Amino acid sequence: MPEDAYSVYDHCNGLVLFHGEGGNDFVLNPATRRQALLPRPSDEHAIWRYAGAYLAFDPSISLHYKVFLVPDVDVEHSPDPDAEWPPAIYKLPVFSSMSGCWEETAFLRQGGPAGAVAEMQSDSREPMYAGPQRRYAEYWRGALYVHCRGAYVMRLSLSEDKYKIIKTPTNIEENKHAKPYLGRSMKGVYFAALKHHDLRVWTLDDSGEQMHWVLKYHINLEALCHQVCELTKWECRKQTNHPWAILYDRSFEEYDDVGSEEWNSDNDDVLDIKENNSARSYGSLMFIGFHPYKEIVFLANGRSDMVTYHLSSSKAQYLGNAFPDDYYGSQLGAYIEESFIYTPCFVDSLPKMDL
């Protein structure tokens, strides 16, 4: 990432949408080292004023991409608290790289709303008190699935300009204590809820007219949390060599060297997860993301020590600390604010630029 990337909004199939130098927004492909300046929306509102900005990009279909802006329920000129939300016709600013401009696209709702405005506003703006502070989206089979404030997912059909509301498997009250996370993995769209050591993972069944969530895993991670804490004591951490590096624009030329140490989900570097009989509390874990192709999740503790957990086999792998010793914030209590599971793409339609 460029050093002037102040905030990452979203990513999709190798492209990254970020807020950078001069208050401008860019779409970047780190693999090809190309990026494009994103013009301001036609309403002249900065992207950061919206609840979310999301990319839709599938290089197997087209090298062009789209950016969708989703407003927060509070932004709509103080709407009637009893009004339904989202509205039956939902107008969203959409940028197309093909046309090079923003257009307001009206999406027609299929089915009922998520609820009343007042109910949506009762949900927290940030989905987690610690860790990722945004609700994420996933682009899957021509539809953009957006996790929204109000405990629902909005499925935007890009070919039909229609949308559906899918209630999340956890409600607003549950989300005050369980950390919700929308992602994509081996079988499509997934949803996770993590409360202390209790992890639940659902898959979205979209085979019928009525889409619904299917609980696939319910796991107690207390023993894993204990094992990671024991493993990452300072005297052990100093001797650990794991594949973490901080890559800025000036270190792109070092990428090949870092690649020689890349993590392999198929190796045998697994933790021996033993039952924890101690009365001592070892804190909780933070949900970082889903592996895009395998049923593996990425987790971290409060010290940013990273671990992967194989959902089907209950095996775990320690990945080291997310902040290497030479990272400028490592001595200042650096913590994970946002996380994206990045997958490189080596084709795009972005202009050539020197990064």
Give the strand order of the largest sheet, numbering strands 1, 2, ... along the chain: 5-6-8-9-14-13-12-11
Poorly predicted ranges: 248-261
Radius of gyration: 21 Å
Please estimate the helix content: under 10%
SSE pattern, N- to C-terminal = EEEEEEEEEEHEEEEHEEEEHHHEEEE
Shape: globular
**Largest sheet at a glance?**
8 strands, mixed
Cα-to-Cα separation, first versus last residue: 9 Å
Mean pLDDT: 81
Structural category is mainly beta
Strand content: 35-45%
Number of helices in the DSSP assignment? 5
Number of DSSP-assigned strands: 22
Organism: Urochloa decumbens
InterPro entries: AT5G49610-like_b-prop
Domain F-box protein AT5G49610-like beta-propeller: 141-236
Protein name: F-box protein AT5G49610-like beta-propeller domain-containing protein
